[in-house]
Write the structure tokens for this entry.
Amino acid sequence: MKKVSKAPFKIFKKGVYILPSLFTTGNVFCGFYAFIAVLNEDFFLAAVAIVVAIIFDGLDGRVARMTKTTSEFGVQYDSLADVISFGMAPALLAYAWVLKPFGRLGWMAAFLFLLCGALRLARFNVTKPDTHGDHFIGLPIPAAAAVIASIVIAFEDLFETRLDPMIMVAVVCLLAFLMVSNIKYPAFKKFEFKKRVTFTRFLFVILFIYVLATIPRVALFILSFVYVLAGPGNLLFSLFRHPDSRTLDEPLSKHDK
């Protein structure tokens, strides 16, 4: 009789780090709650749940690195959580919010967003990224989800209307393309609270927190779009400055993420 390998069960014998896993579980919960809110047609609350999931997602990795509790289990759990909260949840939100009247075009656009988000996460995992790198390759899926959530929050709460469906289709498809592209986006992983910074940079951080606390809905909308445009903007700047630089179709190096 063939002996069954016990390798897949070794990770459970070693145990699971509870602190980062709790943050990841909070991410999953927010993604699931976004589904419930969409089914109840409470689109604003669904968008807020996605934003809270983004906060949990940002904390779990940073907490794991600070406490030196990173693990392969945590990486895989985080990716599965991201598919739920930043792939399926915003795709369902966009479809139910304005894309549903388009029928096949609407749900295919939403599916394209989900598919490209899953591909983005799979590529991120297999390339074995450097956790201390200063950039990502392709738009991170939480940033893409933030764009959709911020649009819903801004239009539902501030403008009390809904975005034009054709514009939303274009936005969803553009986000899908950027996620699977080779465009570099800043990672902000080298930001350390213990490191000394210039007084000007400190004032900029204070101003950023002030604006985010004063007008969070508008700030989230602006910040998410600025981040999305930062990748293509830096690419165009580098192409004009260095015409012989690498194109988007060239293969990634082993250091790219």
In short: Residues 16-241 form a domain with the Four Helix Bundle (Hemerythrin (Met), subunit A) fold (CATH 1.20.120.1760). The two ends are 43 Å apart (CA to CA). The CA atoms of residues 204 and 210 lie 10 Å apart. Residues 247-257 have pLDDT under 50 and may be disordered.
